[in-house]
Amino acid sequence: MKNLERVKAALNHVDVVFLLLLGVAATFALEKINPILIVGLFMAQITLMTWKRNLNFETTRYFWILMAVFVMSLLGLSYTENIARGFDMIGRQISFLLFPLFYATYRVKNIKLLFKVYCLSVFALVLLLEIDALYRFFYKSDTFPLSLDLFLSYRYTGANLTSLIEMHNAYFGMYILFANILYLDALRRVQSTWKLLALLGVICIQSLFLLQMIAKTAIVLNTILVLGSLGFILFKQKKIKLLLFSLIMILALGILSQSYLKLPVERIKERFEELGQGKMANRETRIKLWSSAIPIIKEDLVLGVGTGDVQDKLHAEYKVRGVTSKSNVHSQYLDYTLRFGLIGLLLFLVVLATALFHAIRTGNYIYFCFTLIIMGCCVTENIFSRQWGITFYACFNYLLYLNAKKD
User: Fold this and answer.
1) 129-149: b or e for each residue (b if 16 or more CB lie within 10 Å)?
2) End residue of a domain, out of 223, 246, 279
3) Which stretches make up the O-antigen ligase-related domain (predicted)?
């Protein structure tokens, strides 16, 4: 009993739950470590509530909308044929249920520290992956001469750049983009010129890494959000000299990208050209994948095919159309429509729209940009089909909603 009392006393002075939450935010990219920390986070919160016998459960209207999304997946099991895959999908998306429940019982008191840890972890991974690429280039390359063109070739860009942590570059691009937004938010409050330059330097480094990683959607969103935000912030603060300096840096980065980062720039150009060609494109583009989803949606327009049947039906349609891809539909909007019909799509849009309007109403820059990032990435990726996207969104979305307030 004495040992138990000592443990309780120690836990009263150390916020173990918050430490675990920091660990979760720092390890989104580490697929093997992150789930362990998530389980530890929820178990620690349940244990503390049991010991203290204190359940302060507070909900909002948005909380119940988020719960409805998870309930929709459960209801989708009732009319799906592939029950095993349906349960697998629900298991992956359990974070959609657990994180809102967690924030309904736990109040994050230091959200700024949480964001700092997140940003530092992302920047540390950027540096680590760049060092790994340089090591492979100088010590593992079997192609000579070792030139800048070789380093910026496909062997050290794109998916190869994130091979050390075995992560899809589209998801890491999303992490980098949100970190850039957090740096921009900090930039609004910094008065020291040196700190401003340091923040701009980190944003530039991470933006160049996005180009090198060829995370196409993240690059486009980064260009729009970062450039737009940076211009607005510096102009509003009347820091004209720093604005001119930033414009010179952006111009220099543009020239560098056009001159040396040819592969990323060409890949982005190709994607836009293929979108214009539509079904006539030579490659199996997003348009061809999206077109394959339309007949399936028309057959089950209202309720969809159920939680677990999308992959089977989609791949069957791919085969009919001569598409060899075994991937998902690469659009979260279409994925929800396939699974749960127009009702599911409408509910998903309500989740996003509610978040966006709440961010606008409260004037919260971070939540506004976070929601735009999610909305943009959902156009070209099924970001809720992988743990990388599910935990990132679930961990931050409701937390940002609860903490959204006038800046």
Assistant:
1) bbebbeebbeeeeeeeeeeee
2) 279
3) 223-349
In a domain, 64, yes or no: no
Give the pLDDT score at 13.
Answer: 60
In 321-364, which residue ranges form alpha helices assigned H by DSSP?
A: 332-362
Q: First-to-last CA distance in the chain?
A: 48
Q: What pLDDT, on the 0 to 100 scale, is given for residue 251?
A: 75
Give the closest residue to 159 by CA, choosing from 150, 148, 171, 149.
Answer: 171
pTM recorded for the entire structure: 0.90
In the predicted model, what is the mean pLDDT of residues 237-260?
70
Burial of 67 (0-12, 13-18, 19+ CB in 10 A): middle
For residue 44, give its domain range. Answer: 1-57
pLDDT of 20-67, one tens digit each? 999 999 999 999 999 999 999 999 999 888 887 777 889 999 999 999
Evaluate whether residue 164 is within a structural domain. Answer: yes
In a domain, 212, yes or no: yes
Give whole-number Cα distances, 31 to 210, 313, 387, in Å. 20, 28, 7
Write out the two tokens for 125.
């991974």
Cβ atoms within 10 Å of 385's Cβ, excluding its own: 20
Q: Give residue-wise pLDDT tens across range 253-299.
A: 777 666 666 666 666 666 666 666 555 555 667 888 898 999 999 99
Based on the domain organization, do 146 and 115 belong to the same domain? yes
Lowest-pLDDT choice from 158-172, 266-280, 392-406:
266-280
Helices (H) and strands (E) in the chain, counts: 18, 0
Neighbours of 103 (CB within 10 A): 23
